Amino acid sequence: MSKESILIIEDESDILELTRYNLSKEGYNVTGAASGEDGLKLARINHPDLIILDLMLPGIDGLSACKLLKNDPKTSDIPVMMLTAKVEESDVVSGLELGADDYVTKPFSPKVLIARVRTILRRKTKEPVDQDKPLQIHDLLIHPGRHEVMVNDKPLNLTLTEFKILHFLARQPGWVFTRYQIVDGIHGEDYAVTDRAIDVQIVGLRKKMGTNGKYIETVRGVGYRFKD
């Protein structure tokens, strides 16, 4: 069975070759580009299954490249994983807001990188989620149509917003979402609520979930994700 194709856009040759080597060992078809300009050209020509994109690139930087990729109909559907050595959390948030799917901070373990790659590619091949279908994850049974959550056959008394947040996160376990993405996901764009209001809702939700509240992880400076 043929493996998926991956494009790495990274200007540091040692990191590019190390990443290429480890992914090739796993059977992926890997190509590389040392600049944002070259990476964008290869993405449009080859349409890879995944792009691993460094944020600090010469010329077109990673955030600009991500924006161009997501705004181009030819490449907008390609998942993007960001590589970042920056300590500024705002860069990660900006990348996720632009449409990136995940991020890895340098220095990174090849095993962690490969696991993240597998997860993204597995999600990409999944059939679209039926948003009205009951969802079983960990000890939770979520009924979207009923707006009901059961834990070991016992109902949780959640507000509508708490339910929407839980369902939104649990539908895509492992994904990191910024606060604004959660607001957009549960209320729609341009909804008049501050992103910090999500923090208040999460606190209440975790409290009601008891020990299951541990499945909602805080990603410091970025947002939240549901443990898979």
Brief characterization of the structure:
With 228 residues, this protein is of the alpha/beta class.
Structure explained in plain terms:
By secondary structure, the protein is α/β, with parallel strands linked by helices. It has 2 domains: 5-125, 3-Layer(aba) Sandwich (Rossmann fold), CATH 3.40.50.2300; 135-226, Winged helix-like DNA-binding domain superfamily/Winged helix DNA-binding domain (Arc Repressor Mutant, subunit A, Orthogonal Bundle). Helices cover 42% and strands 21% of the residues. The chain contains 8 helices and 12 strands. The chain has helices at 13-25, 36-46, 62-71, 89-98, 110-125, 160-171, 179-187, 196-209; strands spanning 5-9, 29-33, 50-54, 80-84, 102-105, 135-137, 140-143, 148-151, 154-155, 177-178, 216-219, 223-226. The strands form 3 sheets. A 5-stranded parallel β-sheet has the order 2-1-3-4-5, with helices on both faces. α6 (160-171) crosses α8 (196-209). It is elongated. The two termini are 27 Å apart. The relative contact order is 0.10. The mean pLDDT is 87.
